[in-house]
What does this fold into?
Amino acid sequence: MLYLLLKTIWLLIPAYTPNNFAVVFGGGMPIDLGKNFIDGKRILGDGKTIRGFIFGVLGGILCGTIQFNLEKFFGLAFFSLLSFMDAFVLIVSLSIGSLTGDLVGSFIKRRIGIERGQAFPFFDQLTFLVFAFLFAYSFSPFFSYLFTLDVIIAAFIITPALHLLTNYIAFKLGLKDVPW
Ligand code: CTP
Ligand code: MG
It folds into this structure.
């Protein structure tokens, strides 16, 4: 169980970290260029910026590349079961998929009238995951080699829990005003 938990988190780091990089390095021009959709509401909103997307994707790729090399160094074999190029394709797909899912999530939130920054529990935590898997499945022939069914099921259980836990820690550290 613990092994599955740790393996799942490790494999998902290239999908988890892009949003953190987007938070830190984002800002500036929104991806929707400030435009509204046909319903008169913003297409995506000011929370989705071009810089956030680019640095988020690069951040996820950086983390995955570091992970690959750490595995080699410590004699572990998850991403490094694959050649560097094959692992890289998988990592890039997870990272781009994650932030694309984040955009899809915001698009849907705006359509149903949830304001930018307003939490939409479970949805906020799961759209990025679904798209990270969809992209990795579509672009990497080795997806199902690492992401076995047990890992995918664990991911859907762990991700919301992990999110709640990190928010609670951020709250305790005084980084957030509310514990969710
Ligand atoms: N961010 C960004 N560009 C992105 C994604 C995120 O600049 N493509 C930054 C924004 O500053 C954003 C913050 O990261 O406010 C937190 O991201 P997220 O929670 O995904 O966005 P929200 O502001 O909550 O907006 P939404 O309601 O649309 O999810
Ligand atoms: Mg948010």
Observations:
- Residues 19, 22-23, 26-27, 45, 47-49, 52-53, 56, 99, 102, 106, 109, 116-118 surround cytidine-5'-triphosphate (ligand 1) (CB under 6 Å).
- Helices lie at 2-25, 50-74, 84-111, 123-139, 143-146, 149-172.
- The chain is about 70% helix and 0% strand.
- The chain has one domain: 2-172.
